[in-house]
Amino acid sequence: MTKVWDPLVRIFHWTIALGVVANLTVLRHAEKLHIYVGYAMVTSLAIRLVWGFIGSRHARFSDFVPGPRRLARYLKALIRRREPRYVGHNPAGAVMMLTLMALIAVMGLTGWMMGTDRYWGVAWVEEVHEVTANIILAAACLHVVAAIVESLRHRENLPWSMITGKKRAASGTDIDYANFADRG
């Protein structure tokens, strides 16, 4: 086993996961708590964005953000069920992560806007907030299904690795580090 996900990455992941679940269910109408959880998620996102540049190897964006060609190659291999195993994020997982991060930012921005005098009660802001919440829910469900499928395909418990921080070390055709020069 090798250490892949550092504590900050894991805390970010579970803060966002639990915050989304809480705010879309039990805290949906508990305004004060909903706002506090939203601020905690946005703060966590800001820290994670900084950590993406200065953090541990697999936490850095330079380790996992794919270019369009690498993403297309991975998706073609995935469709053929011949995708390589990545020790860190695979290209599809990286795109999902970046998408969820952007959606969390939109949620935070629109949530904050709804609390200001200028945008309080403005329908389009509330609509963007609601639609974004639904997109996050759908993307999170896809993320969970993909993690389960990948866990089965590569015989590795990915949710558990996000708890322990450890994954099976690279061997054979596994990819341990996405070369920055291979962005294409």
UniProtKB/TrEMBL annotation:
<keyword id="KW-1133">Transmembrane helix</keyword>
<keyword id="KW-0812">Transmembrane</keyword>
<keyword id="KW-0614">Plasmid</keyword>
<dbReference type="InterPro" id="IPR016174">
    <property type="entry name" value="Di-haem_cyt_TM"/>
</dbReference>
<feature type="transmembrane region" description="Helical">
    <location>
        <begin position="91"/>
        <end position="113"/>
    </location>
</feature>
<feature type="transmembrane region" description="Helical">
    <location>
        <begin position="133"/>
        <end position="152"/>
    </location>
</feature>
<dbReference type="Pfam" id="PF01292">
    <property type="entry name" value="Ni_hydr_CYTB"/>
</dbReference>
<feature type="transmembrane region" description="Helical">
    <location>
        <begin position="7"/>
        <end position="27"/>
    </location>
</feature>
<feature type="domain" description="Cytochrome b561 bacterial/Ni-hydrogenase">
    <location>
        <begin position="4"/>
        <end position="165"/>
    </location>
</feature>
<keyword id="KW-0472">Membrane</keyword>
<dbReference type="InterPro" id="IPR051542">
    <property type="entry name" value="Hydrogenase_cytochrome"/>
</dbReference>
<feature type="transmembrane region" description="Helical">
    <location>
        <begin position="33"/>
        <end position="54"/>
    </location>
</feature>
<dbReference type="InterPro" id="IPR011577">
    <property type="entry name" value="Cyt_b561_bac/Ni-Hgenase"/>
</dbReference>
<keyword id="KW-1003">Cell membrane</keyword>
<protein>
    <submittedName>
        <fullName>Cytochrome b/b6 domain-containing protein</fullName>
    </submittedName>
</protein>
